[in-house]
Amino acid sequence: MKRLAILALTCAATVAASLAALPAFAQDSLAKIKEKGVLSVGVKNDYKPWGFLEPSGKIVGLEIDLAQAVADKIGVKLEMLPVIAANRMEFLKQGRIDMVIATMGDTADRRKIIGMVEPNYYAGATNVLAPKSVGLKSWTDLKGRKVCAVQGAYYNRRVTQMYAPELVVFPSVPDALNALQGNNCAAFLFDDTLIVSTLSGGDAKWAGYEMPLVSEDPQLWAIGIRLEDMTGPFGTLVKEMSIDWHKSGKLLELETKWGIKQSPYLIETNKKLKAAS
């Protein structure tokens, strides 16, 4: 009997030690966020008007409004951590942020690493920004030309394989745009949402530039959370909020607020969800 009691105590101690060794984020993330009073979100600060720096240094934009809405819903303070394509998923996996909303394309490969909340909150496609003087007419015109790109962008591999440009990869959007303006590249490969926004922003320095090609490879954007949160309270909350953003027209209103042309994806999803309710 004494030996059984010792064995039971040993097993209990082992289980307790195992539970203590679990990563902190394996617990209920929503409860943890409430407990610390802060929602930590990875955002862009170089992608106007989705997430960018005001002259005052404050990060603002459409995605920032969505992140703030989630924090308000939970009743906590919003903490933003600027991320780039190359580190945003790693920061989420490491527990440095609770959520990422940073113009992130929803791909099958990324879904193996982090959770992608549906319905997707936005959609973009691939195109290039180029000086009009370059005279690009088709994607095949990129062959052998130096093309600026951003590290970690999902379309870099596809465009390289299909059209054989010589990609010159930079860590951030501003770096790549500066290189383009310095005539280090014939074009800048990126999401067409940023290119349209850049060209329509009224900045004289882009007057001699154009988006000359037909956009390809339409891609949905997703809010990223950790895989273990997808079926938990935090994932459920974000999913329900995304449904409401579409159905209520909040996303369409935010496009108007930030001077973005209405997205066919948002219009279609708004109609579909309203009809289904």
From TrEMBL:
- Which species does the entry assign this protein to? Bosea vaviloviae
Listed name of the protein: ABC transporter substrate-binding protein
Q: What residue stretch is flagged as signal peptide?
A: 1-26
SMART domains in the record, alphabetically?
PBPb
Q: Which PANTHER family match?
A: ABC TRANSPORTER GLUTAMINE-BINDING PROTEIN GLNH, AMINO ACID ABC TRANSPORTER PERMEASE
Annotated Solute-binding protein family 3/N-terminal domain ranges read 38-261
**Superkingdom of this protein's organism:** Bacteria
**CC per GO annotation:** extracellular region; outer membrane-bounded periplasmic space
Q: Which InterPro entries match?
A: Bact_solute-bind_prot3, SBP_3_CS, Solute-binding_3/MltF_N
Instruction: Recite the UniProt keywords alphabetically.
Output: Signal, Transport
User: Which PROSITE patterns does the UniProt entry name for this protein?
Assistant: SBP_BACTERIAL_3 (PS01039)
The record ties this protein, via Gene3D superfamilies, to: Periplasmic binding protein-like II
- Sequence similarity: Belongs to the bacterial solute-binding protein 3 family.
Name the GO terms of the biological process aspect. Answer: amino acid transport
